[in-house]
Every structure is written in structure tokens, then in C-alpha cells.
Design brief:
about 0% strand, DNA-binding, about 60% helix, about 70 residues
């Protein structure tokens, strides 16, 4: 699964709007929509924020792994 599909699925699984996630990332809704469609590549720091927010590791959210593990905590 590509990261664009993964971030959309994670958002939809929690019944969240693009506006809500855009607010968390401090971007506009249109920019976040472009992240989900792949028109704009999402910055790494935003991927980290999403991984922490959804409590999934970066391998999962980036689509490298299909195994959902929690975000590592110090």
C-alpha cells in the first residue's frame, strides 16, 4: 500500500475530516488533500506528526510494512 492510501485509510478509519488533519499539520485542507492524492509529496516532519497522532510506526504509515506497530516512545 502506498503512503497516500495509508494516510487516507488511517484518517477515514477514525472518521476524521481532512480539515482536522490539516489543522494538526498546520496546512490548508487543499494542501492536505494534495498529500492524500499524491499531487504533493508530504514532508517527512508531517509524516512523523501523523505517525505519532495515529500511534503507528513510520514503516506502517509510509507503506513499507503492513504490520501496524505502535509509534516508538522514549
Amino acid at each position: 500500500m502506498h503512503y497516500t492510501e495509508r494516510i487516507r485509510a488511517l484518517r477515514e478509519d477514525q472518521d476524521l475530516t481532512q480539515e482536522r488533519i490539516a489543522g494538526i499539520l498546520h496546512v490548508g485542507q487543499k494542501t492536505y488533500s494534495d498529500y492524500e492524492t499524491g499531487k504533493i509529496r508530504i514532508p517527512l516532519d508531517s509524516m512523523i506528526v501523523l505517525a505519532k497522532f495515529y500511534n503507528v510506526d513510520l514503516n506502517y504509515i509510509c507503506g513499507v510494512s503492513g504490520q501496524k506497530r505502535p509509534f516508538p516512545r522514549d
